[in-house]
Automatic annotation (TrEMBL):
Transmembrane segments: none annotated. It comes from the Bacteria. It comes from Actinoallomurus spadix. The keyword Aminoacyl-tRNA synthetase does not apply. InterPro entries: ADP-ribosylglycohydrolase, Ribosyl_crysJ1, Ribosyl_crysJ1_sf. This is ADP-ribosylglycohydrolase. Gene3D superfamilies: ADP-ribosylation/Crystallin J1. Keywords: Hydrolase.
Amino acid sequence: MIDGTTGAAGASVLMMLTSDQRDRAAGVLLGAACGDALGVPYEFAEPLPETAVPEMAGGGLGPYAPGEYSDDTQMQVCVAEVAASGADLRSEEALDGIAERFLRWFHEGASDVGLQTSGVLAATARAGGLSRAMREASADLHRKTGRTAGNGSLMRTGIVALSSLSDPQAMAEAARLVSSLTHFDDLAGDACVLWCSGVRRAVLDGTLDGVREGLDLLPAGRRGHWAAWLRDAETGPPWRFSPNGFVVPALQAAWSAVIRTTDLTEGLVTAVRVGNDTDTVAAIAGALLGARYGASAVPGEWRAKVHGWPGLRADDLVTLARRTAEPAAEAAS
Ligand SMILES: [Mg+2]
């Protein structure tokens, strides 16, 4: 059951989830963080053989401690801190809050950072209207390079779905706006809309139908391309979608891993085995897998190990996700 009403600013002000829905909402950040930490040791390394079992061994680009998540989850935590306040993520105030946290992370906490995101954050002037300045830096990068459809906004988007469970249109608008802070290209925004639609539906009814349903939330002119890309991912083996720094193969790799596996652990292992940007593909897959199978499906060993900036562990990630999905219930508890 879900019961939501919409306030004057458009944000959901009342949300009642069943215990199963609550478990699935709690899995979104935790699933992403576990995928991230599982993929960290293998980022841009030789792809794992089909029978190899990845481990949260640390190392990678950081280098990271065993179980430590990387920039993907660090940036998603920045979004989550604002989302968990109950803010409407479409508002300028909320977007300014996210932009402020991205800059703080970039200067104080970033253990590694993607090239595109780094370019935008370094060029963002610290002034009033921070989100607008960040979007302008993103547009400027696009004018100079024509290439701003990296996977760096998709990797941090799952939590956005939890902020608008009762309103798919508001969710799609928020996903696109949060993406556009660093990723000007419409394809990056489209990918975030599709993935959030998938996360939303998975939390609400435990199915994976939402990714394809998300096609209806895209501009008509781009639906056909995305339908074909999703079909391609559904028919091809996951390893075909490498390299995956571009947002389209990154989404295809994650989708391919999610739909051909039947539990969270197998899904994340399959995502890491795709190779190339392993932590990001597995973080993307992990948000949807966590939404589909719930926090309770995360193995105890991973739950005990996973951690990262700014000093969060599994329980903190669960709390942030729950507060985002159900601000009223969390405030009352
Ligand atoms: Mg990373």
